[in-house]
Amino acid sequence: MAEIIKEKDALKSYTEDMIIYSIVVNRRRSLPEIRDGQKPVQRRLLYDMFEDGNPLKLRKSASITGDCMGKYHPHGNCLQADTKIFELNGNIRTIAEVYKDGKSIEVLAIDPVTHNIVPAIAHSFRIGQFAEKIYHIQLSNGSEIKCTEEHPILNSDYNYKLAKDLKVGDKIYAMYNNKNTNIEICNIFVEYTEQVPMYDFTVDKYENMLISTNDNIFICIHNSAIYSAMRPLVNPWECKLPIIYGHGNWGSIAGDDPAAERYTEAKLTPFGYDCVIGELKDSKNSVDWINNFDDTKQEPEYLPAKVPVLLINGCSGIAVGIVVDIPTHNLVEVLNVTKLLMKDPMADFTLIPDHCQCCDIIESDWKEIAETGNGSYRVRGHVEIGEHHKYPAIFVKSLPNGVNTTAIYQRINGMISNKELPMVREVIDATNNNIINVIIQLQKGADVNYVKEILYKKTDLEKSYSVWMNVVDGIEPKLMSYREYLLGFIEQRKITKFRTYCNRMQDVRTRLHQLETYIQVLESGEIDNIINMIKKRKDTDDAPIVEYIIKKLNFTDLQANFIIHSDLRKLSIGFLNKYKEEVKELKAKNKMMEEYIIDDSKIIEEISNELDDIAKRYG
Prior knowledge:
This protein is of the alpha+beta class. A hairpin with a 2-residue loop joins strand 26 (470-473) and strand 27. Helix 12 runs antiparallel to helix 16 (576-598), helix 12 packs across helix 17 and helix 16 crosses helix 17 (600-618). It starts with 9 loop residues before the first helix and ends with a helix.
């Protein structure tokens, strides 16, 4: 057969492929969903904790992340024990050695926005899984990467590819003597083995680090984000209303890393259970379900969130060609605007960010931000002026989101060393139990207000923030206005309520059908004849009894089978009045549910009352 060669524009082909790739990655891993405000990994973590059966009971974090990885989020991103980790101090150790040491280390990472090499902290080294299939990726410089099939490796075009998707001839990112170079993949083979421990790690913000190969050439690998995805849902200085309660060392406002997942525990907070996922307990059919990655289980496509979580707790991240930066907002203010839009979708409103700590939000065009989902604003941490040991002093009492006390302390000390702040005597970080107290002691006679303005100008005591409300709506990411997001939430909430009432009504009608069958058979006087037929039959064939019941009582085949398979005790005449009372109650419930299903205003009223109750309890 003759070979057919098709000409195709390489640039056009690359662009088309990247569009498809970005849509898939952004939807499945990177961006929050409009319907519940969660990224996929967060949703899967919360569902795994809920599915455990006792979501308000503490579990080991390692158990949660391992369970989540095995069932729902297969991005274990694990490396074999002999992988060489390059530390910023020049040491090179295997990942197994770093794991045994149990400490965080300084490494090099790639900034996904600028593509610059930057210092970073790698922590929470752990055994991510026990693998039975290991990918061996042999490189043109004679080195080899040994990892799980889902491990992302950075290509020369700064896009990640999973190990299982790599091909011979692909060029991967490499760095030699601080310069970019290319290494080709010359061979790939899969080793099948028995439960080999594979190691994982976490690098906050950048989610990658450089590892060492032969000839001092470094390549870039992605980390697993399951454990690191828990932290922003735990700490009150990172999350306006924590969804997960963390027990143990989950880091600090000083910038300390959390302990390894084998040392910490977690459970859902009352807010997380009540307002984000708890409705699944009453009606799992109120949301859509999809198969997990290996088609062995089902997971919710979204959670039945009762509040617009995305605006309340905010979100940040970097996807393929897209940045998401959504600030935190006050719960009561968000719920009030939601109720306003339920009455009038075109009503004017303004929502101003409300950081996790008490800060001053510097004026911006809030209406423009709300109407476009894009803009910028500045935030100032709170400071107090007073005395410390008879010297004038500035006391830092709060910081903008994402700023820690160690960074402020080190920045001010650096300015003192560089003679930029000669009027400062000493900086003391007296922060304790995550209550911020950085003391800046000044020289006698120093102008306190002048120093304060310098600190705002040259440190992160005052910080600029961008707003990019990129959200997955359907299958594609979209830059949404606050109005679009809240109207989308309201519509989704109405659908969830509608489905919940439909499911409840179905349960009520099923029970009514059963009770009416019991009542009819008990009032017919045929119950003794039916019981005698069952007692006297000489085989296991139900057909003659089913035919008798259908003929005598005008029952359906389903009703007849229900009767002969019922508990004999439930066919007692003593239960008749009880059945009749229950039927009255169920008919009233059925009528009420029909009204809610038919009349949209009743569902809207219930959602409004629900938001009022949540505002009282958690606002």
